[in-house]
Amino acid sequence: MRYLQDRKAVLRTAREIYEQKLVPGTWGNVSQKVKNESFLLITPSGMDYRLMTIEDIILLDMDANVIEGEHKPSIETQLHIHIYKSRPDVRGVVHVHSTYASAFAVANKSIPVILEETAQVIGHPVEVAPYARCGSLDLAHQAVRTLGDGQAVLLANHGLVGVGVDVEQALNVCNIAEKTAMVSLYANTLGQVKELGREDIDILRQEFSCYGQS
Ligand SMILES: [Zn+2]
Prior knowledge:
Keywords: Lyase, Metal-binding
CATH superfamily: Class II aldolase/adducin N-terminal domain
Strand content: 15-25%
Distance between the termini: 31 Å
Domain Class II aldolase/adducin N-terminal: 8-185
Structural class: alpha+beta
InterPro entries: Aldolase_class_II_sugar_metab, Aldolase_II/adducin_N, Aldolase_II/adducin_N_sf
Bound molecules: zinc ion
Number of domains: 1
CATH class: Alpha Beta
Low-confidence stretches: none
Number of helices: 7
CATH architecture: 3-Layer(aba) Sandwich
GO cellular component, one term: cytosol
Radius of gyration: 17 Å
GO molecular function, one term: metal ion binding
């Protein structure tokens, strides 16, 4: 079996989105592109996250042909592939149906940059891509267009997509977008949502790239 570390990372992240309640049931999907190769590893369609094993993770080429795997790949395979094709800097994509981000996706409102961690990890308001049905090529196109060179995008009436240099970073983007959406709604009930300014966002994001031990 090839790309064991990538398979493990995809499986670990898939279990995380379920355990962290970012998706109900078998919804959502996770993929990671293999470094310096035109392959990606993606979760299978409609499979219980609790029972998923590394053998269930599917190896695809960039034309969505199954290279290794018994199962049908995620319904949103085209969404993942289109993101990788348009963003050479991205190696991880996580798609979730989390509650608070979904509220913004339904209200057709972008998630504002109101917390320092939103500025640090995402660095831009999370905009809503125009509605397109799940699994459609149109959804992939709309999401890629609205995502641009950003880290996250909302899918109208559907959910959230986070991207990163690997699946761990993409998951962190989803977690921060979800938390920001929740705090924004609570702040609204208190009467005011004050957004961070562009200059502070840029400085916070830049400083964050040097944060931590690495
Ligand atoms: Zn979905």
